[in-house]
Specification:
mainly alpha; 3 helices; about 0% strand
Length: about 100
């Protein structure tokens, strides 16, 4: 859960919505499915929205991450998720 304000897609201005949409287009198809968020306050939360206050930074951070998730790379989605889980646990992050 982020400790800062975020702007979810539904509340984003046209420029930020465009960044959200461009990022979604970069991710592999199996990442398109919505996953319920598990947050302490019951609100929707995402690591992408954590960057929403600075759309240019969000684009660069998340586009770089999308490249690492390409299906033609040697790691499977399961391996990618396990790495993300271990890193989040080490950082005491609920993502």
């Amino acid at each position: 859960m982020t400790w800062l304000s975020t702007i979810p897609y539904e509340q984003a201005d046209p420029a930020l919505r465009q960044v959200y949409e461009q990022l979604r287009a970069l991710y592999p198809a199996d990442y398109a499915a919505e996953v319920p968020s598990l947050t302490r306050d019951g609100k929707s939360d995402s690591v992408v929205a954590a960057h929403s206050l600075i759309p240019e930074a969000m684009w660069h951070m998340m586009a770089g991450y999308a490249v690492l998730l390409r299906p033609d790379l040697p790691l499977t989605r399961r391996q990618q998720e396990m790495i993300a889980t271990v890193v989040s646990a080490q950082n005491e992050c609920s993502y």
